[in-house]
Amino acid sequence: MTYRQPILDTSPKVSDEIRKTTCYMCACRCGINVHMKNGRVAYIEGNRDHPINKGVLCAKGSSGIMQVTAPSRLRHPMKRVGPRGSGEFQEISWDEALELAVSWLKPLRETNPEKMAFFTGRDQSQSLTGFWAQAYGTQNYAAHGGFCSVNMAAGGIYTIGGAFWEFGTPDWDRTKLFVLFGVAEDHDSNPIKMGIGKLKTRGGRVIGVNPIRSGYNAVADDWYGVTPGADGLLILALVHELFKAGKIDLEYLARFTNAPCLVKADAGPENGLLLRDADDKLLVIDKRSGKPVPFDTPGVRPDLGATHQGCRTVFQVMAEKYLDEKYAPEAVAERVGISAERIKGFAAELAHVAFDEAIELDQPWTDFRGDKHDKMIGRPVSFHAMRGISAHSNGFQTARALHMLQVLLGAVECPGGWRMKPPYPKPVEGHPKPHCGVTPGKPLNGPHLGYPLGPEHLALKEDGSPARIDKAFSWENPLSAHGMMHMVISNAHAGDPYKIDTLFLYMANMAWNSSMNTRAVIEMLTDKGEDGEYVIPRIIYSDAYSSEMVAYADLILPDTTYLERHDCISLLDRPIGEADAAADAIRWPVVEPDRNVRGFQSVLIDLGARLGLPGFVNEDGGAKYKDYADYIVSHERRPGVGPLMGFRGNGEGVGRGAPNPDQIKRYIENGAFFLAHMPEDGSYFKPWNKSYQDWAVKIGLFDAPSPYLFSLYSEPMRRFQLAAEGHGDRQPPDHLRDRLKQAMEPLPCWYTPFGDEDAEDYPIHALTQRPMAMYHSWGSQNAWLRQIHGQNPLYLPTGIWEKHGFAEGDWARVSSPHGEIVVPVAHMAGLNPNTVWTWNAIGKRKGAWALEENAPEATKGFLLNHLIHELLPAKGDGLRWSNSDPVTGQAAWFDLRVKIEKAPARHHTEPNLPPIKSPVPEAPKHRRQGEKA
Amino acid sequence: MHPAPSVIVFTVLSGLGFGFLAYLGAGLVVPPAGWAAFLVWGLGYGFAVVGLLASVFHLGNPKNAIRAFSQWRTSWLSREGIFSVLTLLILAPVALFEIFGGFPLATLGWPGALLALVTVFCTSMIYAQLKTVPRWNQWLTPVMFMTFALTGGAILSGFNVLSILLCVVLTAVLVAIFNVGDKRLADSGSTMETATGLGKIGKVRLYEGPHTGTNYLMDEMIYVVGRRHAQKLRVIAVAFAAILPALVMLIAPEGSLFGIALALIFHLTGAAAARWLFFAEAEHVVGLYYGAR
Amino acid sequence: MTELPQKTDRKLGLVIDLDICVGCHACVTACKGWNTENYGAPLADMNAYGEDPSGTFLNRIHSYEVQPSGGGCAQTVHFPKSCLHCEDAPCVTVCPTGASYKRAEDGIVLVNEDACMGCGLCAWACPYGAREMDRAAGVMKKCTLCVDRIYNENLPEVDRVPACVRTCPAGARHFGDFADPDSNVSRMVAERGGMDLMPEQGTKPVNKYLPPRPKDRPAAAPLTPIADVKATGVAGFLDRLLEKL
């Protein structure tokens, strides 16, 4: 009998049409091909032409179809009818919703705009939301960076004029050693996975420095299971070793950093600032003449070892500081949790790859001084870090230390090193300064957020008290460049610095996983004053989904999902990009919403027009923009420069050009993104590269070339230290002086995280990580992803596991100085011996996200947030210190210390909050995506 | 393996039915013509057919069950289906002759009896062939199925002495299969290290499963039964399937319907327990991937 | 037809690089997305929003820890697993209805759902857990190696690879013909010591796994100081250091 098999159609029709847009299952923003069948979304894959993901797509992106069809999608505008937290809502029309919002917002604007606080969460349209808030006139606006990774952003901007996040990238094609500090599985996620794969396939090596050996650390060739909060100390020990062995790129330091600048030694108000000429230009000593000259003098050979009128160079100060034996590997090993031998080996490997395996590109280039270089020297060591090292109270200095390490190796912006993506590099001086000048009925006097260069840029009231509700840019955290969303609700509730009237939130789950101290925040949201009114009287909330926060708002403006909307991923905001190309992208409605919902940005523009905000109305008072799509195309931030750079003017304009009504159409035809390549001789050494600088001006990234030196030594920080020492008009309160002196150290330093102080009774560090297959809280509504991560155990290292005699299926009581939780535990051997951890934001409140009340997310899942307070435990000094970085206000999530004991197994994790009534109908029981009708 | 009731009913009853049919076909039992023969043959056919029907409840898509007769070249399940139908067809004239004619049709009866035993053997081979379930993948599995069929058949036939002898054999087989079975997974050589290929590095343990909920594989193939619970059930299985029926057959007069019924009830209870254990204790190697072994 | 073909013209399959897989589950949902819309019945998700969600997936990622026998810290290994398209596929031969078969032209093991009665025996016969019964359709589902992609003339040629391979961000999955010794997959297997899973089961899997490269090497020798700072002082040390410039 011959072998028979069925006849198969191996070329079935794939789909009716492919619509290309941009993913929004996380912040990575990959290009996607959305396959349509009969007008519905049938399949989502990566767009091969897209600069970010080049065709690949992660677990979240490929599950987008389950997000677009999730039963948790909000359906109508809603007005709260029951008490806050009850989930009792009444559906209303958009007109009624918008008029209600206007009736709250308009009188506030005319009398006291600061009573309106507008904060956005996982939003990617901050250029619009900030513009709107500025036009409204409140100083109380920010996005969520303050509780996310502002340390990483600010640490980078203040040091090298660029940051990790998705704003830079290892030179994956050339790097030989990639060093990853801390958990970083979220931003730039697909490019990092692609890069690691590419690097390892080429035979390159990956080093992981992380208390937990999972994710990228699982594929690391060498793993350093550092103790949380000690990364900075480890880095300084590496710096110590490199200094001692002279394994430092001296040429690079002399040319491109402020290492040769001169530190003023005279006592007085300028002590410790850098020597400048009459034109305020930094001075260096030219080796050829021995004379001080401006740093940008053509042909200058800055002398790292010079002294001038008693001033030493930054380099000398650094050498003295970091050669100190307190940074010797032997001295730090115990605190860092890694043996001195391994720390030394680590330093040796960095030096070996950077200097012995250096690479050269035959690519001549000209620097900003006009000096010509006939080739590009590369140090093929690259670094990346994100929230892992930044979410500590010493995270800013740790981030700076890591950048210093990169710079000492000469490994920033060189072939094989770490490179920035346009619009970066951009010196700290090139960023806006914070503004808080409020005039009722008028716009704010400038953008809210920025990078202070000294105390004069703080957002303070006349009496020196914080001007902003979140106390950003105050003496408590002067460089809080992203605001401090995590403080807004508790400050507003406490009336400290003042009370507000309306809290306007977008896509921020403050009643659950986005708040520290979740239960207390819920109480603050529902707390009433003596007058029987809520202490925070009005809350407007926009979200696409039935998140926990919905029940705590008074007015719900339902947003669309990402495939039903216009968006722009703009160079004015947080663009996508490549190290050798500027890029931006759009989203467009590949399907129309089947519910009564509107894209939040369009709603905001509508509200702007209804409120008559400047910039949102024409001279005749009519709406200036029809919707967000119209704004994206027509808005000009500066003449000829708008949200999108591609296809401007007649369609040929790149970066600059008049608005082009066909712009969105052209983007759609181009795959929903635009890419502008920089000249080949401009794609490395960008902060100092003439060719790059000229190109950046041409495409409108800035209006004049802005070369700068890397700030190993930070003058802005020294200015705050001077204030703490008593110099200057603006003076900090006395109780903050010592802290400022320590935290604003102008050279990267390390100090014990605040959470470690007085924590002897809580010997264990507790961390969270974000699973690669989930993003924030919203993965749980995704029928595919929640099967992968439907509950989260607390992972315990072998020592703790055995000491307490834990077995599979056991539970533990976990307590911190602030609270306790009771949760399931599991064993993990690849874990720092003093660290426990769990996945972030898997735990859900019963009744939220259209899940059944007995869903494992609600019964077995949990948050560590309950253990973390936004304030530190009382120290007996009568003051309450915030649990955040004293430089930037970054929430110190990872400072958490706990103790653990065995607890009887149970049906519910503790705390077990009562269910909230779901504002959306019950979900269907079973699903069969693609069911043939 | 998940001890699905449908599969337990299927294997226990069809084994009993075909076992009894073997005695009937071989003419070892010749009931008086008429109602008596009808009832006796009906009992054999009834057990066999109810058992086979129960197996249909195990199917996800029974409309294609007819195709199960097609793959006799490679599939023991297909063979089992074919032989069971063949047995029932060949024995039908034998039964009719006995019911209406009152005499056995040995020409068809002997082949029918043989086919009945082959059917039970095929059933057993569905399990015994599976390398993936080392506990089943041994010669004791067909021996156990055959012994059950013959013992049940002997009890139904009212052969006291034979029943007692077979009960002794069954006791030995069960004790043997329990004990040998316990070592089979270890002897199979399959471990988490071979399953993952990571044994060259060292000892492997599951740190995080592929999903936090359950799935078909875990529900179907990863069934964990407590050791003490299993020990208790093993005693019950042997006691009810073999020892108690033997005692009944020892005491009851030859041919006592009450004795047969009582012994049968004991035996079936024990058989069900043994079969439950047969599944519940069987470790599928896929469990290694889930760290469940 | 559940007899295995005498030989297959090609041996298509996957190479999975355990040195690179970061365990992101991208291949899991890309597979689900493609296959629920294509070959055969859609892939059900039972209790999709409830207490015990349980769906059909054709590819899953396990995560293991390996404690090196020579000491040192435990290593985490992410481990994707789908049908290995075995040469001696026991899932095929046990099938009573002829629904399971191995294609003669390329060795892909498939289930003809029109003939499957959902008895589950093939899943029992598979040591790897590569087959899952769809609880809504009642038929057996498994990796098809995207047989409806790899030859699909409606797809651009570059996309004629399984969905999991196309989507894998780390590039840990490779598709090719193992019958051709010069193919990408054959070369990788030769160079990196590609291995079979559970070889003792005698299934002769076509898919191969590349083992993780050795990890946690002994620390490199420490750097040599250019001078003893205690002896020279910082200034003296800097003189020595900056001489190099």
From TrEMBL, chain A:
Its cofactor is [4Fe-4S] cluster. InterPro entries: Asp_de-COase-like_dom_sf, Mopterin_OxRdtase, Mopterin_OxRdtase_4Fe-4S_dom. Keywords: 4Fe-4S, Iron, Iron-sulfur, Metal-binding, Oxidoreductase. Residues 904-933 are annotated as: Disordered. The keyword 4Fe-4S applies. Residues 16-72 form the 4Fe-4S Mo/W bis-MGD-type domain. Residues 912-922 have a biased composition (Pro residues). Gene3D superfamilies: 2.40.40.20, 3.30.200.210, 3.40.50.740, Dimethylsulfoxide Reductase, domain 2. Its main location: other. The keyword Iron applies. GO terms for cellular component: cell envelope. GO terms for molecular function: 4 iron, 4 sulfur cluster binding; metal ion binding; oxidoreductase activity. It is found in: Cell envelope. PANTHER family: DMSO REDUCTASE CHAIN A, TUNGSTEN-CONTAINING FORMYLMETHANOFURAN DEHYDROGENASE 2 SUBUNIT B. Belongs to the prokaryotic molybdopterin-containing oxidoreductase family. This is Anaerobic selenocysteine-containing dehydrogenase. It comes from Allgaiera indica.
From TrEMBL, chain B:
The chain crosses the membrane at residues 7-29, 35-60, 81-103, 109-127, 139-156, 162-181, 233-252, 258-278. Keywords: Membrane, Transmembrane, Transmembrane helix. This is DMSO reductase. One of its GO terms (biological process) is anaerobic electron transport chain. InterPro entries: DmsC. It comes from Allgaiera indica. GO terms for cellular component: dimethyl sulfoxide reductase complex; plasma membrane. Signal peptide: none annotated. One of its GO terms (molecular function) is dimethyl sulfoxide reductase activity.
UniProtKB/TrEMBL annotation, chain C:
It comes from the Bacteria. GO terms for molecular function: 4 iron, 4 sulfur cluster binding; metal ion binding. Residues 196-221 are annotated as: Disordered. Keywords: 4Fe-4S, Iron, Iron-sulfur, Metal-binding. SUPFAM superfamilies: 4Fe-4S ferredoxins. InterPro entries: 4Fe4S_Fe-S-bd, 4Fe4S_Fe_S_CS, ET_IronSulfur_Cluster-Binding. Residues 12-42, 74-105, 107-136 form the 4Fe-4S ferredoxin-type domain. PROSITE patterns: 4FE4S_FER_1, 4FE4S_FER_2. It holds the Pfam family Fer4_4. Transmembrane segments: none annotated. This is Fe-S-cluster-containing dehydrogenase component. It comes from Allgaiera indica.
